[in-house]
Amino acid sequence: LKPENSTITIFGASGDLTHRKLIPALYHLFEANKLADDFAILGVSRTEFSDEEYREKLRQLLVKHEKTQPELVDEFFKHVYYQAVDTANAPDYEKIKTRLEELEYLHSTHGNVLYYLSTPPSLYGVIPECLAAHGLTKEGHGWKRLVVEKPFGYDLESAILLDAQIHNFFEEQQIYRIDHYLGKETVQNLLVLRFSNGLFEPLWNRNYIEYVEITGAEALGVEERGGYYDGSGAMRDMFQNHILQVLAMVAMESPAVINADSLRNEVAKVLQSLHPLNPETIEENLVLGQYTSSKVRGIEQAGYRQEKGVNPESRTETYMALRLQIDNWRWSGVPFYVRTGKRLPTRVTEIVIHFKRTPHPVFSQNAPENKLIIRVQPDEGIVMSFGLKQPGAGFKAQEVAMDFHYEDLGETTLLSGYERLLLDALNGDASLFTRSDAVQACWKFVQPILDYKAGLDAKLHGYACGTWGPKAADELMEKEGRAWRFPC
Ligand code: BG6
């Protein structure tokens, strides 16, 4: 399905996300002939550029970092324009209005506009208001949609406030809160794996599952984003959004049909069922860590507090591990162990479903429990481990695995998260975008942890770069006779 012609208006057009993710994603969609027959991309930000200067700047970055075809690059940039605007200043939006009218004429967009907010979050409330003041949010003459980047709020209170501000000018069905993890093919595959296989779904509950692990590990540190990250930490940067969305896909009930309402109803329900943490239970279930300077493969790595833009006395966590539970019939009593962090040994996101052992050990040496490992990235795939008889005398069981790698599907190239989500937003399909109630459920669950970590008594453990986080995170599992899987 090809989207209708439209103008994609990107606020924050000279920012990192636009250069690194949005423009490459739009270019790849263009190359794959998935964009509309005609369209315009209007970059908006404060810096003064002419259309030509902006195109040139983007072109250089695109060809430097992506595989491109020169003729198509030229063709693609004929659709790109730029408008300098002080985004916080309402009268300046007259310029956007004029530009949109011009582009509607040039590219037959019929008044369809996708606004993409990729600015500092402090502008998320302001931009819709200014657009509305110039009649730029009204539907009727074409559709108007608003894509909002994370973070959607800073805590529960600010998320509720932001929601109210945006809802003054856009209806919920016009709002697309983006979480790029939901755009990942392997995250969506969780639904297909669970709900199209008679094999897994009957076992997918507290009767057969002992516990679930979710790991979102990154080898990189905070790089150039120290200033932003120091006010955020792993909890707000990764857990509140990406990790909880992945968890929802693992734990939700089956939607009756796949459409935005029914899918998002189930996501919201499971997030609303997270067992609330309180000041008495937080410490025994949570481990916070921060990377310290150390040598990785002989090379000295800076500690978090030495990173550019970071307070040298910062107490921001770059690692967190949490044991959580879901209060519903399916998951009652099943612990979910979740961890995410920067400067860990490798970049890997995976989910491990640990099935219960057989009720009675018959063989002298039983195989370890059955595990289903869902590799979200990299090396996307699924591994199922089970016990088999060791050849030879006696009955010894050993662990073996069945392995599926997405790359074995051959030529199929996976769309990146941003490609898939941009396309969905252009097609008006909100299924993979987070709904207001789900965002608030996430913040509601996270809020007691934010309160805890803001306190002076919050425990923060150091861990050396290139290790799997603080020892205390291992103890979180060990005290229940379990251990994290260490993916390589
Ligand atoms: C972003 C976070 O949302 O997700 C980053 O702000 C993090 O800190 C990134 O590195 C991880 O995304 P991915 O797709 O590389 O796993």
Automatic annotation (TrEMBL):
Source domain of life: Bacteria
Annotated Gene Ontology cellular component terms: cytosol
Annotated GO biological process: glucose metabolic process; pentose-phosphate shunt, oxidative branch
InterPro entries xrefs: G6P_DH, G6P_DH_AS, G6P_DH_C, G6P_DH_NAD-bd, NAD(P)-bd_dom_sf
Broad class of enzyme this protein falls into: oxidoreductase
Active site: H242 (proton acceptor)
Keywords of the record: Carbohydrate metabolism, Glucose metabolism, NADP, Oxidoreductase
GO molecular function terms listed in the Swiss-Prot or TrEMBL record: glucose-6-phosphate dehydrogenase activity; NADP binding
PROSITE patterns reported for this sequence: G6P_DEHYDROGENASE
Function: Catalyzes the oxidation of glucose 6-phosphate to 6-phosphogluconolactone.
PANTHER family referenced in this protein's UniProt entry, alphabetically: GLUCOSE-6-PHOSPHATE 1-DEHYDROGENASE, GLUCOSE-6-PHOSPHATE 1-DEHYDROGENASE G6PD
Record's protein name: Glucose-6-phosphate 1-dehydrogenase
Gene that produces this protein: zwf
